[in-house]
Amino acid sequence: MVTTHNLGFPRIGRNRELKFALEKYWKGGISESALSDIAADLRVRHWQDQSILDWIPVGDFSLYDHVLDMSFMLGNIPERVSTFSTSGTIDNYFRVARGRSASDIAAHSCVNAGEMTKWFDTNYHYIVPEFNRNTKFSLDVSGLLEQIQHARKIHQQIKPVILGPVTYLWLGKSKDGSDKLDRLDDLLGVYAQLLDQLKHAGIQWVQIDEPILVMELAQEWKYAVRKTYYQLQAASVNLMLTTYFGQLQDNLQLACELPVQGLHLDAVTAYDEIDKVIDWLPGHKVLSLGVVNGRNIWKTDLTQTLNWLEPVYSRLQDRLWLAPSCSLLHVPVDLDSEHKLDTDIRSWLAFAAQKLNEIEILANALNHGRESVAEILRENSAAVTSRKQSKRVHHVDIKARTQEINESMGIRQSSYDQRSVLQRKQFRLPLFPTTTIGSFPQTLEIRQTRRDFREGKLPEAEYRQAMRKEIEFCVREQEALGLDVLVHGEPERNDMVEYFGEQLGGFAFTQFGWVQSYGSRCVKPPIIYGDVSHSHAMTTEWIEYAQSLTRKPMKGMLTGPVTMLNWSFVRDDQPRAQTCMQLALAIRDEVLALERAGIKIIQIDEAAMREGLPLRKSQWNDYLDWAIRAFRVTANGVKDATQIHTHMCYSEFNDIMEAIARMDADVITIETSRSDMELLDAFDQFRYPNEIGPGVYDIHSPNIPSVDSIIELMEKAAQRIPVERLWVNPDCGLKTRTWEEVKPALHNMIAASRHLARHL
Ligand code: GLN
Ligand code: ZN
Question: Where is the active site (predicted)?
Answer without folding.
Answer: 700 (proton donor)
